[in-house]
Structure formats: structure tokens, C-alpha cells
Amino acid sequence: KSTFAGLDLGTDEFAETVRTSLAQVEDLLLAELSSGDEIMTEAATHLAKAGGKRFRPMFAILAAQFGGRPDASEVITSATVVEMIHLATLYHDDVMDEAQLRRGAASANSRWTNSVAILSGDFLFARASRLVSTLGPDAVRIIAETFAELVTGQMRETVGVADGGDPIEHYLKVVWEKTGSLIAASGRFGAMAADATTDDVERLSRLGDIIGTAFQVSDDIIDISSVSGDSGKTPGTDLREGVHTLPVLYALRSDDAASQRLRQLLLDPQTGKARPVTDDAEVAEAIEVLNASSGMTAAHDRLRAYADEAEAVLAQLPDSPAHGALSSLVRYTIDRTG
Ligand code: FPP
Ligand code: MG
Ligand code: MG
What we know:
15 helices; binds farnesyl diphosphate; binds magnesium ion; mainly alpha
């Protein structure tokens, strides 16, 4: 999926401005991912060419509209850097999740090997680092801190919740670290690059926290609710990995017949902890039970609460043509199905 179906960018003139900026990001992205080496270029551009919504660049570009110079070249650079970091993590994530499909195409690990995918992610990260250095030491520091958060979130997800810990609290922390932090940095970067005021930079970062968290929660809902092929990924990947996401955690918390069956399917009978579900029929059954569960309804309620929170932050931002577009981006984030 390379478009934001139904995203309302407002007037034709404003939509054109955003589209022009996104096209510049696309050119810079492919230029930065190209190497003198043919195999490196092919592997490193594979995911960028497979599609993707460019959600982070879009958010950075919209955030930049609140600054005095939204057309600055630094805005394009910032928007490109965050997408490169995101892409780098996807190469590694698909290795860890043993995912075969990404953006409707073969993941790099399945098309080539784990080694090729890991090295491609490293290459993207190297190129993102080179590009961010042109934005100065503050930008380098912000990206370094964000990257440490991403990796910590991925580590926390891998290790799982501590004994006696609250699994929902653990989940929300992971979600903010692995996804919210980079989307927050995207808003911060776009706003900083366009010389927005310190207060507005903080508001756009806060907005990114909320949108980013909601984005990952909706991603996790889609892993359960999407019909195969719709999301460009294989549904049920989280269950296969033994990763319990928000609809699952809410469903397991309740005490109806559905949740009892879910416990049998998703928990290790010895330890009572999350277990990877490897049997295709069991994955399909768990997905069916989850989609009809109160856990799924509760997860959707949570998404709507994020949308209200995001609107409250938006209301604190000064008037701009980007207001309506960001509001539309919030709705897109919670309503998306792929
Ligand atoms: C996607 O989650 C994963 C992330 C947003 C973070 C991944 C972070 C790393 C792999 C850190 C290491 C990276 C490098 C380059 C050193 P998901 O698996 O729930 O999403 P999906 O459904 O899109 O696969
Ligand atoms: Mg994954
Ligand atoms: Mg993952």
C-alpha cells in the first residue's frame, strides 16, 4: 500500500505542497540507499521499492507546516532520515519475527537470507546516520536516543513481561518504545527543521507519541483482524511468535467461555506464560475467537481514546492548513485496515 486511502489533505494547493515534499523524500531516499555495489543496492532498496505508506515522512512534513520555513531542505532531509531508520528496523524485525511477507512482497530474509537482511538493515542505518549528520549534533543526538528506545522496546518485547508484572503496562511501554518513539521523533524533526517554536516542537512530539502508540495498536489489531493479503503481511504473525498484543491481553483478562478457550490455545499449560502457536488450525481458531471477543472491542475503545487525546493536543497548536490534514491522519491511524 503506497497511498493513504481517504486521507484528507485539505485544499488542492496544500495537498500539492505535501505531495511535492513527499516526492522529494522519495528521490532522496532512493539516492541515499544506492551503493556502488549492485547486490547491496538491490537488497537495500528492496523494501523501499516494495511500497509503504511513508507515514513518518508524511507526519514530519505536516509537522513542519507549523514552522516559519516549511519548505526548507532540512525538512526533506529530516523526513527521509526517519523513514530510513524505520526501514532499517523492518529488515531486522522480519528476521526476528521470521516474517515472509512485507508490503505485499517477499521480506528480504525470505527473498535472500537472514544474513542479507541483517546486513541490509545495517547499511540503511549507516546511510541514515550519514544523512542525519548534515542536520547537526542535536539531530544526531535525538536520533541516537530514539534508536536506543526502539531497540530497548524490541528487547523488552522479546524478553516478555517480568513475573508479577502487569502485561498491559508492559505492552504499552513496548509499543511506545518500538513505534511511538520514532513517530514522536518524526514530528519533532519536521518541526525543528522548519524552525517551529520550542513549545510547538514539544506539542508535535507529544502528538507523535500518541499517534505512534495508536499506530502500533492498530497494527496489532490488523494482525488479528485483517483478511489475508489486505495488510501486505501474514495475519497471525504475533500469535505465531508468542507475542500477546492488546486485543489478546484484554481478551485473556476477561472470564467468559471464549477467554477460557484462548488460554488453552495461547498459554503454556506448565508455566501459564505466552507460547508460540505453531499449528495453522490453532492460529486460525485463535484469530476467530479473538475477532468475536470483548478484548477486540476493548482494543478499539482504547484506539478511540487515543484519537481524543491526539485531538486535544492538536487543539493547542496554532492555526495552519496542516491542522485538518493532521486530524485526518489521526482518524486514518485508528480506522485503517491495512
Ligand atoms: C515492528 O513491530 C518493529 C519495530 C517497530 C521495531 C523494530 C526494532 C528493531 C528491530 C531494532 C533493531 C534495528 C536495527 C536496524 C539495529 P512488529 O513486528 O509488531 O510490526 P510488523 O507487524 O510491521 O512486523
Ligand atoms: Mg514484525
Ligand atoms: Mg516484531
